[in-house]
Amino acid sequence: MPLMLSRDDVMQVLDMNDCIDVTEKAFAEMANGTAVLPLRTNITPPDGLSLYMPAYLKELGALACKIVTVYKNNPAKYNLPVIVGKVLLQDPNTGDVVCIMDGGYLTAVRTGAASGVATKYLAREGDGQVAGIFGAGVQATCQLWAMTCVRNISKALVYDLSDDAVEGFISKMSDKLGMEIVKADSPDTILQQADIICAATSSATPIFDGTKVREGTHINSIGSHTPGARELDTAIITRSTLIADSYEACLNEAGDIMIPIKEGAIDKSHMKAELGEIVTGKKPARNSDAEITIFKSNGLAIQDAATAKLVYDRAVEVGVGNSVEL
Question: What is the pTM for the complete model shown?
């Protein structure tokens, strides 16, 4: 009988620190060859997009597939969100589906966790650092949460085109994290002060001037994930040491990388390493405090599989969810 876990169930048992831990292990498995990660499969029915993201992690014992759909007419026609996600977790010994869980909150946390791992290895160390967040949506909250788990952040600046979104972000995250969070009046305000920057917007065009980024800054780029869209301009890409979540994903899905390559500004060798290679020590991380580093995150199914296994184990431990007969 598979266990059914709602969004509230997932929220009850999923903690960012734990998610960062298993996400780091997932990237290590990818680098060590114990992960199976096919490219996501896309199907385009008349009114939407359906994505299938399978993965297997041998050491973590995690076998799962996330199904994500994007249907823009859902709110108006069916009173459903534009993006809907579910994760099916299997027993790797039998193949049986042991759990079906909501994938919305899980996806937000696991995406933040990947940036947490990248920040842990790539950002400069030091007390009282300043974080800068572009975007004030759900994903931005998890990005800041993850940063505070791996670095001593004393203050955060947030910039968004919506003042209401910014005010909501500040109210929610100030209470959650117990830290100073203030509205940035412009992108330049963040560039002038932040030690660690996260780009978490839905913009299809660059959101700041890359020539103005200070030396030593670390950037997590997570918002854009299609070939024709990018949050980062060519200037910051060429100035930075670039770390990919996956070479293959960056070369096939990430406009932040694909567009500068098409322009001839860089070639694929500009990507120094995959995150798993940094985690396992196969390649070095930051070379100096002056180096600008970028982690380009496209979102990988290994993150979903590792997080789903974590959620399932915790849910079973504390007795959350409902088992159903199929």
Answer: 0.94
